[in-house]
Write a structure and sequence with these properties.
Metallo-beta-lactamase, Chain A, binds zinc ion, single chain, alpha/beta, 296 residues, globular
């Protein structure tokens, strides 16, 4: 049973030794925005952290990691090679030990991206290239475990021209499906309809999720009726810059289906809390409701 707690409104929740927290961090910004998602699994005696993307502004992400007492990242997963997702990673790598870097391996010629990969090499961070099939990462924390299934991009992404356009790079996102007990959450990066359609064809069971982090910041090219029919989410979170995202048609589609929707640009950081053996819930940093930034 979904318990949506609007505006419980604290970024730092009370300590809980057996809880999984998924924080969709508010990286909304008038200029760019992006995604940055911190997964923290706690059990008696410790916590493990995984970061999916790091927005564009590294110091902001690093400050959050410090505030949330993240001393080590078990893994950093980069959804795709756009700066609103990888731009903050260089700072993260320089501040926090990272045990593994997971990405899709899609070639890019952007100087800042090449510099990031060089930094990862210099720091000898183990790299997992999720370029085919489905990889399983298991986060073990005491007696608890969380499964992260990495959905590879389509095969053609391995030979994508290094200066390919935005949509082509979006459609080379790695997806992540998190599962803990009966709870599941899906993170499709910025995958648009072509890649989402390919996943719907090849791994439909892995798209089913209680919570969906909307693809491509709430754009209409990433959230469709067909996708919602497959995922069947009971809540949707949109990480958006608040300038051109999210789109009105996406908010309308979700509202028509009665799916509670949370937007970082309006609600601030959105936290999914999954206690062991209990009901999951969503809290937001601020009270509010999602506002469309693009009319179509
Ligand atoms: Zn993006």
């Amino acid at each position: 049973m979904l318990a949506v707690l609007l505006c419980a409104a604290r970024l730092l929740l009370p300590p809980d030794s057996t809880v999984l927290l998924i924080r969709v961090l508010d990286v909304s910004d008038a200029r760019i925005g992006g995604d940055a998602i911190l997964i923290t699994d706690s059990s008696a005696g410790g916590a493990r952290h995984v970061l999916i993307d790091a927005g564009e502004h590294g110091p902001r992400i690093a400050a959050w990691l410090e505030q949330l007492h993240v001393d080590t990242l078990a893994a950093v997963i980069l959804s795709h090679a756009h700066v609103d997702h990888y731009g903050g990673l260089g700072t993260v790598f320089s501040r926090v030990p990272v045990r593994a870097f997971v990405y899709g391996g899609t070639p890019r010629t952007a100087v800042s991206y090449r510099a990031l990969l060089s930094q990862i090499g210099r720091r000898h961070i183990p790299v997992v290239t999720a370029d085919t099939g489905v990889r399983l990462l298991t986060l073990v924390t005491g007696a608890d475990s969380v499964e992260l299934r990495i959905l590879a991009p389509p095969r053609g992404c391995g030979t994508l021209p290094g200066a390919a356009g935005g949509d082509a790079v979006n459609n080379c996102s790695v997806g992540v499906r998190l599962a803990r007990g009966t709870f599941a959450m899906l993170f499709p990066g910025d995958a648009e309809q072509s890649e989402l359609g390919w996943w719907m064809m090849t791994t439909p069971a892995l798209l089913r999720a209680d919570v969906l982090k909307a693809g491509h910041h709430g754009s209409s090219n990433a959230t469709s009726a067909e996708l919602l029919d497959v995922v069947r989410p009971r809540a949707v979170i949109i990480s958006a810059n608040g300038r051109q995202h999210p789109f009105a048609s996406v908010l309308g589609l979700l509202a028509a289906r009665g799916i509670p929707t949370f937007c970082t640009a309006d609600h601030g950081t959105v936290t999914v809390r999954v206690p062991r053996g209990g009901e999951w819930s969503i809290t937001t940093e601020r009270a509010g409701r999602c506002h469309a930034r693009t009319a179509r």
